[in-house]
Amino acid sequence: MEQQETAILIASIVLVVVVIVMISLFSIFQKRKNSLLLQQKEAEKKFEKAIAETQIEIREETLRNISWELHDNIGQLLTLAKIQVNIAQDDPEKLAEVTDTITKSLTELRSLSKLINPDAIKSLSLTEAITLEIERFNRMQFVNASVTSNQEIVKLDDKVEIIIFRIFQEFFTNTIKHSKATKLTVDIRYDQDKLVVKAEDDGIGFDNSSFNNVKQGIGLKNMQNRGKLIGANVELTSQKGKGTSITLLYKYKKEGLPPLDEEI
């Protein structure tokens, strides 16, 4: 009888211990799940904030571009047309030149309208948006620029395209303002499993070691951090007297953020 009571007592104790362990494990699991969900929400908020900031930066850069083009390109064309009109008053044969100049001005305005219209910008693919930038550089004669690409076999998420476009817009701006380059080339390649975009200029370049202590380092870090937001790898290389290049590699993946253990 005592052995039976002892066995029942031991079984009860074991059962209680098992229940306590199960409750503890469930509690730990629930806490970890809640913690992961909280991290996911924070990552999503950070991602959305970064997207919003990037969109603002693109708009600001676009407005600066419009201002430059209105002043330096279209403004000069209209000034030239005014001068030609005055000349044509004494020499009617010059009216053809006036017509050509005004026609060119209208063409430039149509190109500029693509930048002004937000709906048009949203509807552009990554390749089209970058090509639009390259065409503007050539119109403004900032640099001899060209872009090559293959067919877009994958439709990227709009937010991914925004981030990639801003990375290269920042590189282009640095090329125009600081590199003293005469040539800029961009290549956009869609493979079966990844997108590779490379831009290269023939500017003055700089020592790669300067990444660690001057503005070039800050600029590279900004580009790399933007890349991390979408899980892309960004590499920037430069050499004094031999120009600067940037290569972005983005592996296609399902919609969503990078894994939570990835630094953002």
TrEMBL record:
Occurrences of domain Histidine kinase (ranges): 65-254
Catalytic reaction equation(s): ATP + protein L-histidine = ADP + protein N-phospho-L-histidine
Enzyme Commission code: 2.7.13.3
Transmembrane regions: 6-29
InterPro entries with a match to the protein in the record: HATPase_C_sf (IPR036890), HATPase_dom (IPR003594), His_kinase_dom (IPR005467), Sensor_HK_TwoCompSys (IPR050482), Sig_transdc_His_kin_sub3_dim/P (IPR011712)
One Gene Ontology cellular component annotation held by this UniProt entry: membrane
GO molecular function: ATP binding; phosphorelay sensor kinase activity; protein dimerization activity
Keyword tags: ATP-binding, Kinase, Membrane, Nucleotide-binding, Phosphoprotein, Transferase, Transmembrane, Transmembrane helix, Two-component regulatory system
PANTHER family on file: NITRATE/NITRITE SENSOR PROTEIN NARX-RELATED (PTHR24421), NITRATE_NITRITE SENSOR PROTEIN NARQ (PTHR24421:SF10)
Pfam families: HATPase_c, HisKA_3
Designated name of the protein: histidine kinase
Keyword Transferase: yes
